[in-house]
Specification:
The complex is a heterodimer of chains A (147) and B (111). In chain A, 30% of the residues lie in helices and 27% in strands. Chain A is built from 3 helices and 6 strands; from the N terminus they run ββααββαββ. In chain A, helix 1 runs antiparallel to helix 2 (39-60) and helix 2 (39-60) runs antiparallel to helix 3 (110-117). Chain A starts with a strand and ends in an 8-residue tail after the last strand. In chain B, helix 1 (26-36) runs parallel beside helix 2. The mean pLDDT of chain B is 95. Chain B has helices at 26-36, 55-71, 82-90, 103-109, and strands spanning 2-8, 12-21, 42-53, 75-78, 98-100. With 111 residues, chain B is α/β, with parallel strands linked by helices. Classes of the chains: A alpha+beta (147), B alpha/beta (111). At the A-B interface, helix 1, helix 2 and helix 3 of A face helix 2 and helix 3 of B.
Chain lengths: 147, 111
């Protein structure tokens, strides 16, 4: 896994494989800890990013282990800006919907978990080159509010 | 992820998971759960050692729960940490699963 950790930014590039996700989560957790995010917020961010990467592995690359994921997490004023980029064939954003939770069945929960923990999500095309780009924003509670 | 299966109090199967139940390990969790459910014995899933569980791990629990329902097997979860409980709540499964705060509570509660 290649990582760049300059100041208020974390960049990771890794293979789109289930076995890579733990290393990604560990690196992200460590970075969020260094930014002093509160534990609950950091935990939500790690989960949302993990679920986003799972969606890429399963639905964009459809299990092709040669695929690559690029993750960037940037700490901006009052928020975290997250992008998850792949190089797979374009995914139709209209097809990525959380399923109704009353419909109790295994699977399909990832998108719901992402949307219920992030303040903004948007799936589109990267500025250049092939693939898909998921942008997510997580608002941060002001320091000292105890939130 | 680590797991163990043992019998407690003569009639309860305790399936304990530990570590991270993620996309890499949830197929194994699913296999273990489905193997134990439906044997006419109460199943208690001990999550107290689970540090992280994702949607694929939750899906394994849902699948086991559905098999338990179909086969009339009492099925419950025990000891989820705050992070695991949060995922269950976000998925609104805290209203579906029977969840005990600790394994002891689950064992004491009976069927």
């Amino acid at each position: 896994m290649a990582a760049t950790q300059a100041g208020a930014r974390l960049e990771l590039r890794f293979a789109a494989q289930p076995g890579e996700l733990r290393g990604m989560r560990d690196a992200l957790r460590e970075r969020l800890r260094s930014w002093k995010l509160d534990e609950a917020c950091a935990s939500d961010v790690v989960m949302a990013v993990d679920e986003a990467c799972q969606n890429v592995i399963r639905h964009a690359y459809r299990g092709d282990p040669t695929g690559v994921i690029e993750l960037e997490v940037r700490r901006a004023t009052g928020e975290l800006q997250i992008s998850v980029r792949d190089f797979a064939p374009p995914v139709d954003p209209a097809r990525i919907r959380p399923r109704p939770l009353d419909d109790l069945r295994p699977g399909g929960l990832g998108t719901h978990l992402i949307r219920s923990t992030m303040d903004h999500t948007e799936l589109g095309k990267p500025p250049s080159g092939p693939g898909n780009l998921l942008r997510m924003v997580k608002k941060l509670a002001p320091r000292g509010t105890g939130a | 992820m680590k797991h163990s299966v043992r019998e407690e109090r003569g009639s309860v199967v305790v399936i304990a998971f530990a570590g991270e139940v993620d996309l890499e390990h949830s197929p194994k969790a699913r296999e273990v759960l489905l193997e134990q459910v439906g044997r006419r014995r109460r199943v208690l899933v001990d999550l107290s050692g689970v540090e992280y569980i994702d949607s694929s791990g939750i899906a394994s629990l849902v699948e086991a729960f559905q098999k338990a329902k179909k086969t009339g097997t009492p099925f419950a979860l025990a000891g989820p940490n705050p992070a695991a409980l949060r995922v269950l709540e976000l998925a609104r499964l805290d209203r579906v699963f029977r969840i005990f705060a600790t394994l002891e509570d689950g064992l004491d509660a009976g069927g």
